[in-house]
Amino acid sequence: MRKHSSSVVFRFLLSLSVSVLGGIAFTAIHTPIPWLLGPMVFMLLGAQVFKLPLMWPSSVRDYGILIVGYSIGLTLTEDALLGIMHQLPMMLLMTLLLIGFCTLTAYLASKLTPFDFPSLLVGSIPGGLSQMVSLAEEMKSINLTLVTFLQVTRLIMIVFCVPFLLFSPWVGGATVVGTDLVLGTSALWTALFPEIWIYAPLCVIGAWIARKLRFPTAFMLGPMIVMCVIQLTTSMHTPALPSSVLNLSQLMIGSHVGLMLRPEQLQRKTQTVTLALLSSVLLIAGSLGLGYILMHVYSLSAATSLLSMAPGGMDQMSIMAHEVNANLSVVSGYQLFRILFIFFIVSSVLKIVLTRLLRQKEGNSESCSRPSN
């Protein structure tokens, strides 16, 4: 037992060292969001290329997401919430257009590849990795490995490509504006206390309750709701987090994402990898187009529009929004609306439709296998 626990500790410390090294390396070469991309890339290479015994507990990732949830909660002021309510019809329209685009992509891919439409559809819908994988697990005929690989590839592609798009001339060349540059690191750390001793336990309790209620991305929604309620109902000081804490949260999330891709479990590797990359590129292109429409309808910045429509994880998109000084409340509003819409409505509809499709397929195969009189 002691030997097993020491082995787990060694693997975690090794993984932490690899992640920190990735963050330092990406900071040195001045890449966007280095503490998210660096650990992600180094963990992926360490596990798949160098075959290191890396591991990253999901609980560590969850507390990284909790930190991001706290930061988003700070942006949900009364004015921000009124702005989000005003944009609800556009949120619904954009979500439906994105889901329609994903459905069309999955249908075309099913005609051009040997993979079945239900598996491709579940693998293409940007409803959160855990939610889509859970849906695939419930449907026995769906290719779970394909779904997981498509979802993870899309997530990694978006997390890696979107920052470079944000800083490119096409989007307008976003600039990093850190709160530490404005207020000073020591001032931000001093401002955290003593209120953070109250908020931290409340955020953990909020995350726990959200998880018990089976909310999607509970460790983000719980703290978001807690901090939003505190801001709307009290006059208490709600301090911003220093960039070092946000960097730590990026490392905690990026390390987990980097370990999620496991190509050794795939069948038809070349076809699957090609399909995953092409579908991710198409999805990014589609979200760019929708972001362009959003930018002109509401006069938003290019960075805010792109991050609002990017079909990645809400935590990663919020981190990027914070880094480039985009409108965090708008980005989190669009991302949250899409997650909730897909979680509560699309998942149920998908389950009904896919069950009927699979029954029809099984019925057709049975009728074909019956001997003719």
Automatic annotation (TrEMBL):
Keywords: Membrane, Transmembrane, Transmembrane helix. Signal peptide: none annotated. GO terms for cellular component: membrane. It comes from the Bacteria. The chain crosses the membrane at residues 12-29, 35-56, 63-84, 90-109, 142-167, 187-210, 273-295, 336-354. The lineage of its organism: Bacteria, Bacillati, Bacillota, Bacilli, Bacillales. Pfam families: AbrB. This is Membrane AbrB-like protein. It comes from Paenibacillus amylolyticus.
